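Homework help board

Subject: predicted structure for assignment chain

Our instructor gave us this sequence and asked us to write out the predicted structure in token form, then describe one feature. I got the tokens but I'm not sure how to describe them. Can anyone check?
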Amino acid sequence: MSVAATGKPGHPPRQNSFSAKRRSAFLANLAESSNVSKSAEKAGVCVSQAYRARREDPKFARQWFAALSEGYTHLEMEILRRLRDGDQKGEDSEKYDFANAIRMLNAHRDNVQKAQTELRSVSAAEIRASIDRKIELIRKKVIAEERYGDCET
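My token output:
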């Protein structure tokens, strides 16, 4: 076995690379479960790899929080369904832990708001560039109106 194929002499190839396919599987599972550990396990990656990717890749971080939000929306809908229809699906069902579910939703809501605020923060250069683009559009519009006049009859 070559070092190039394995990464280290005497070690098997890395099975836990966080490829695009595995990221997609992780995000799909996260949207379904809102559980990072279970999502990483189902995608075949280490939890630490998922968190590292979130720290290092702003696009993946946005996808992560979108998936979490979707997962928590599912949880909210499940809570509402159970409240409306009763929390027992059958005689052998365990009692649903509403208090814990609501606690999780509140904690998630706070974390998502904080994370989204951080992700939305833009640099001064990005703000200036946006303003410059808007000014240029207005300038072109004014020039066109001066050149062609008011076209209303």
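Reply (TA_rk): Your tokens look well-formed. For the description, you could write something like this. Residues 15-119 form one domain. That's the kind of observation they're looking for.
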